[in-house]
Structure prediction request, 787 residues.
Amino acid sequence: MENVASGNAPIVTLTDAEKHFGPVRALDGVSLSISPGECLGLVGHNGAGKSTLVNLINGGLAPSAGQITYTDGSGKDTLNPMSAGVRSVFQELSLCPNLTVAENLRISHSDLKGAGWRRRAREEISAALDQVFPGHGIDAGIEVDQLSIAQRQMVEIAIGFSPRGSTARLVILDEPTSSLDAGIAEQLLDHIRTFCAAGGAVIFITHMMGEIFATASRIVVMSDGKVVADKPTTDFTRQGLVDAMGHVAANSDPETQTEKRVLTEEILRTSQGLSAHRGEIVGLSGLAGHGQAEALARLYFESTSSWRSLGSKSQMVFVAGDRGRDGVLPLWSILRNASITVLGQGKWLLDRKAEAEFGETWKDRVGIRTDNIDNPILSLSGGNQQKVLFARALASDAPVVIMDDPMRGVDVGTKRDVYRMIREEAARGRTFLWYSTETAEVCECDRVFVYRNHEISAELTGDDITEDKILAASFEMQEA
Amino acid sequence: MQTKYRILLPLISLAVLLAATFWMQPRTMSYFGVNLLFNLAVPIALATIAQMMIIMVNDIDLGMGAFVSLVACVVATFLQDTPVLGTIMLIGLILSYAAMGALIHRLELPAIVVTLGMSFVWGGLALFILPSPGGASPGWLRALMTSKPPLMPMAVVAAILFSIVTHLLIMRSGIGTVLRGVGGNTRAVQRAGWSVIWLKALAYGLAGLFAVLAGMALVGLTTSADANIALRYTLLSIAGVILGGGEFIGGKVSPTGAVIGALTLTLASSFLNFMRLNPDWQIGAQGAILILVLTARLLFAKREART
Prediction:
């Protein structure tokens, strides 16, 4: 940043970069360069090649063909992304949960050594956190597994921007705001703008259109491993951007009906006041980490994992948002991951044929993009893994579906597919309990409970469900 | 559980057991008595630290006992007769442990299988070196293990020394932090530009080093060796790590806790002796103590999760 000599030489330049995984062309000839001061918004639906591109730029993968060159802070050419100041913040959390916040900085900052390195690490990470997220309230001496998922993401972002013995020149942020609430996300966007204004560059991947238009100076759209559009942000409209991503269901779907449904019997009520009727979509909202996920987990475990629960037939199924922790069985195939809820129910031996049929049906129903459902689940992109988890839940005949922020890092097209499925299932009498960090999603619900400090601060129904009212209920106390 | 509290439970267990022992047999409450109680804990503590290095990187070593036995055989024969050759052999053993770690990582083999397989190799080598019990302890080693430092018995001094050294190495140093990071999230460490294969080799090498020290301490105490002398160390060392607040996965280990765990296990068998418990029941009773402590830990963790 302080190096004026570097001028405007691009930090990284890709020339016809390709990456193949077997017969799959994940990246099919991409040419791109990023100069200091640019904030590049990278969009595309799941599996468009964004992650592959990012991994090529940060040196995690070597290109199958083509060239990638970097220039370091003094304007010299280099082949090493680290010395060019390229940093990545990944979508799936990549901190060591057993280490403290400061110790995690040590992992990516090998120059921290000698006596007193722990104190210096604490100072550096605290400074970085203060800079990006003023008023974060995270103690640098606390172990990461004591932090909420949003706080972990904040730490990870702060490590990305921290000096670490050199200067961060290009920071790649992959879905950085997916588990942050609106206020914290805004702090991050502010910091990105400041950082770019000071000559840093950012690659910003997100599915939130608003964030792209608020921060990016240039937008690159990817589809099927190719760059299909690369223009300054001012040349895009929201609709134009969605069109460029080439998703079929781009227009707002006409069947978003808000017909009043007759309330049927109440099937669920907790001591906390959370309630749901048959066929209702109940949203849980409020700032991230205010007890929504815990409330759902408690509800779920009480009904399924108690020794005293009646019989083995569960009344609820769970769709995980934190896929790595609660969702996928990483060593199993796509099929097994989906069929686990119905697998061998009532029989002693597995019915392989029925399972295969089941797999094909659900593959088409939820639109999992794979040529073979016997592939390992981890071969799928994040959004497709999430679809598998939806299939797993919806395939059971449990009347209540609990969803813990399931749309984290899922692209617009998948979201629309899932919304449609949820509406259909609700119309058939299934009840959904849906925690989401995105207010727009919550506004689709029939009834919304807003959480604040682990308690329900408001219950909204029908026309009362608006972004303003939800926000008001989330913040009330702070303003008073 | 936070690291700073993780050490509390092992400390309490040891204190309770020690108080019970002193109450049952007041004569142990002396310089000589304490030394006698904890004498054999020194090699076990070292083996527990070695096991901890492996558990720290999410693996487990089922060959620890056989390896320590092999070291004991080398110490009682080669190190005694031809010190230079003996030293070279011991260094070679440490390096072979490091190589085993690298191999396990490189070929993505399960450590539990590789170390179990290697335990037969170590056992075979030990029998080859010392077909029947015998050998002799080098004089300096014997002198070291039977030394009588002022104020505190040798065993206590050694335990304190081990905890300080390993605490500095694992919990406070930069490289120790990275090693624990391997257990916590290998991919994160790899992405940060570290060579995980070297880190694993380092962790296994450290384990080899401490296992060699354990074998030497054992010979210093017993003055002779046998190919099966330390076979029970495998399970004792694993139990010691867990008793000391460590966890099997996730890089959550505590070196001080491991030393305390080893002391607790040694004390438990003396305690059962004082209770005049039939030796046939002792193993079961030791297991019961282990389960008791782990239950207490689980209850603590649950209560913390609720608050």
